[in-house]
Design a protein that fits this description.
The protein is mostly beta strands and 151 residues long. It is built from one helix and eight strands. Strands 6-5-4-7-8 form a five-stranded antiparallel beta sheet, with no helix packed on it. The protein has a three-stranded antiparallel beta sheet with strand order 2-1-3, with helices on one face. The structure holds zinc ion (ZN).
Length: 151
C-alpha cells in the first residue's frame, strides 16, 4: 500500500445464528437447574476450589474436576451494577441490575440478574437467594434472578 492510499472504514452489523454444545459439565449444571431447581458447583480435588458455574478443568492447578457440590442457592453480592440501556447481548432491556454473586460454598462469582430490589437497597455483601422460573428450559436464565433474602 502506498503512503497516500486512503484507508476506508465502514461499519456493519454482523448477526450470526448458531448452535453450540454446552459440553458435559455445563450441560449437567443446566439440566440440574431445569429439572431440580438446584445450583451445582464443581470442586477441585487437588486444591479445593469450588467453581460456579462449573468448568471441566481447575483454573488454578489445571486438574480435571469431577466432584459435584450442591449449593443452597444463597450467597452474597461481590459487586453489582445497574444497566440502563438495551443491548442485543443483554438478557433484557434496561433498567436492570447485574451482580457478581458468591454463592455459599463457592469460591467463584456467578454473574446474574438481581430482582425484587432497587439499586439503593443493595450493597456489597447483601445476602441474596435464587428465584427460579416457572417454566425452565435448560438455560442460565432458568434462575429468573436473585433477590434479597427474606429471612
Ligand atoms: Zn485445582
Amino acid at each position: 500500500m502506498k503512503q497516500n492510499d486512503a484507508i476506508l472504514i465502514s461499519s456493519q452489523v454482523l448477526q450470526v445464528s448458531y448452535n453450540y454444545s454446552a459440553g458435559p459439565v455445563v450441560s449437567k449444571f443446566l439440566v440440574s437447574l431445569r429439572d431440580q431447581k438446584k445450583i451445582l458447583g464443581i470442586k477441585c480435588d487437588k486444591c479445593g476450589i469450588v467453581y460456579v458455574p462449573p468448568r471441566a478443568t481447575c483454573g488454578k492447578c489445571f486438574s480435571e474436576m469431577k466432584q459435584w457440590v450442591e449449593l443452597s442457592g444463597r450467597g452474597r453480592i461481590e459487586t453489582f451494577t445497574s444497566v440502563h440501556y438495551p443491548e442485543p447481548v443483554q438478557p433484557r432491556g434496561g433498567p436492570f441490575i447485574l451482580a457478581v454473586i458468591k454463592l455459599d460454598g463457592s469460591d467463584t462469582g456467578l454473574t446474574h440478574l438481581v430482582g425484587e430490589a432497587e439499586e439503593k437497597d443493595l450493597t456489597i455483601g447483601t445476602k441474596l437467594e435464587a428465584v427460579f422460573q416457572e417454566n425452565r428450559t435448560g438455560h442460565i436464565l432458568d434462575i429468573k434472578y436473585f433477590r434479597p433474602c427474606r429471612d
